Amino acid sequence: MTKKKYRLLFLSTPVGALGSGVGGGVELTLQNAAKALIAKGHEVEIVAPEGSVTDVAKLTQIAGNMQTSAQTQVGANMVVLPQNSVLENMWNYAREVQDQFDLLFNFAYDWLPLYLTPFFNCPIAHWISMSSLSPVMDAMVSKISKLFPDAIAVNTRACADTFSNGDRLMIMGKGIDLTQYNFVAKPEKPSLAWVGRISPEKGLEDAAEAAQTTGLALHVFGLIQDQGYWQQIKASFPNAEIHYEGFLSTDKLQQKLGQSSALLMTPRWVEAFGNAAIEAFACGVPVISYRSGGLTEIVRHGKTGFLVEMGSVLGLVEAIAQLDQIERLTCRQQVEAEYSLEVWGDRLEAWFEKLINPEV
Ligand code: HBI
Fold it and tell me: CA of 216: how far to CAs of 29, 262, 286, 301, in Å?
């Protein structure tokens, strides 16, 4: 039977404009979710802070002051909201237009949208894009996951397990648009890559040390969120050949990423998912990662890369020496089988079906 076509309102992260890179991986997640669902015939409108840009769906920009990043609220038992908050204004807009939609899809890692769930007539799906960071956020995740079973999703089981009621969260995986990534069978010369927001919880210093030890060039992609941290890394590893490539569009990122011998992932926290890992695989680039969080469910040790002990630079160096064991095509094949937009779109659609037409 022909599936109903849904009208979906996506609400982006309030920490930065869509396309600025401040929102990190969740910007890619939101845009890929929109593409996956539009490809299946559903309508999507995106609500995001002023200054946002997107070419995947209709965009409504909302004014207001950016939200304090949750990384600065680790351990917090109080919620922080600026005056005239863009988050407050985005959800006021959602309240006004909710009757034009079948479902709201929230991408903010924030207390307010979760709290508002029972106040809306329209069902709300929440995408929790990071592992547990604060008790005040955990408590609201638990409360809403009890009130609205199936309303909250995370990327991986590892991420869900960092929350007190992780068993109530939906494990939704991730998807990328594979047509945007070109497979590179053999890079021109050996080099390493690192992708992510440049911020202490991402452990870039370990990748710099591995580059200095192996003498391989390290290409760094992503927004410099903490300038002091970045300067300190360069000062700590003066003999490492580090090339800062900036925060690039997917097309430019994949062009350069494909030339790497391996992507190093060095999270100092429970990495929710690591978009970069599946982007690297899509280009045929193996991933060498700390055995942390969602990455343990993505990297096939010895097949599509290596998982090494958390914080072990020596482990990274040893894995780099074994890269010729990895068949680069296997990396591409894993993404095609598990992380394509089609596979993810089916999963998202089934999830929304449950929230829009809950079995009575
Ligand atoms: N902090 N308060 C807040 N809200 C977000 O949506 C948010 C954040 N910090 C980081 C972030 N989102 C994204 O970079 C990650 O979800 C990927």
Answer: 31, 11, 16, 22
Pair of tokens at residue 196 = 């992510």
The pLDDT value recorded for residue 2 is: 57
pLDDT tops 60 at residue 178: yes
Counting atoms of ligand 1 from 1, which one is nearest the CA of 24? Answer: 14
Q: Band of the pLDDT at 330, cuts 50, 70, 90?
A: very high
| Cα 120 to ligand 1 centre (Å) | 23
Q: Does 360 score more than 70 pLDDT?
A: no
10 Å CB burial of residue 231 (0-12, 13-18, 19+) is exposed
Counting from 1 in the atom list of ligand 1, the atom nearest the Cα of 107 is 6
Q: What pLDDT, on a 0 to 100 scale, did the predictor assign at position 302?
A: 98
**CA separation for the pair 74, 77 (Å, rounded):** 9
pLDDT confidence of residue 274: 77
- Alpha-carbon span 48 to 155, nearest angstrom: 21
DSSP state of 325: G
Q: Strand 124-127 and strand 103-106: pairing?
A: parallel
* Strand residues in 249-336 grouped as ranges (E): 262-265, 287-290, 305-308
17 pLDDT more than 60: yes
Mean of pLDDT values over 232-259: 96
> In angstroms, what is the span from residue 158 Cα to ligand 1's centroid?
18
Instruction: Say whether pLDDT at 148 is over 80.
Output: yes
110 CB within 6 A, ligand 1: yes
Q: Ligand 1 centroid vs 14 CA: distance in angstroms? A: 8
Q: How many CB atoms lie under 10 A from the CB of residue 228?
A: 9
CA-derived radius of gyration, the chain? 20
Instruction: Identify whether the C-beta of residue 308 lies closer than 8 Å to the C-beta of residue 286.
Output: no
**Cα 109 to averaged position of ligand 1 atoms, centre (Å):** 5
Query: For residue 262, with 0-12 CB atoms within 10 Å meaning exposed, 13-18 middle and 19 or more buried, which class applies?
Result: buried
Burial environment of residue 75 by CB neighbours within 10 A (0 to 12, 13 to 18, 19 or more):
exposed
Tell me the Ramachandran region of residue 24: left when phi exceeds 0, alpha when psi lies from -120 to 50, beta otherwise: left
Averaged pLDDT score across all residues of the chain: 95
